[in-house]
What does this fold into?
Amino acid sequence: MQAPIPSLAVTLAVVQGLAAAQPAANDSVTRLPEVMVVAQKVPVTVQDVPLSVTAVTGQTLTDDDARTVKDAAIFAPNVFMNEFTARKLSNPYFRGIGSSPNNPGVTTYLDDVPQLNANSSSIELLDVDQVEFVRGSQGMLYGRDTIGGLINGTVYLFTVTAT
It folds into this structure.
């Protein structure tokens, strides 16, 4: 038995529907703002980084009233920060790899300065413009204490000018 041949009316209706779905040339296009990260120690847009990076911008920190790294961590998938009785006892976990007080697996950096003790993993975000959560081992650039990833806080923002 042979498959039925679609009629000309049905074919024209499908083609018209596809043509109507295409945006017109005069429609405005919404563009998201460009986010710069320094996950590889060089400022680059977040789309061009071959890493799993979540950048929480200063505007998001302000809008959400995030005061600590733990407050900002809710925006990053696969990031968990436990907090016991005090904030200094918090330990970050990225993709299940975490820290202990003597052997951090996730290190917090603030303006390229490592906070190498576990008591400083959930620091207060005073004058911090952006927090980056870089998931995955970063030992090549940041050393042995970043087997799970790193938290990178910057107190400045990079601006890119088009030439």
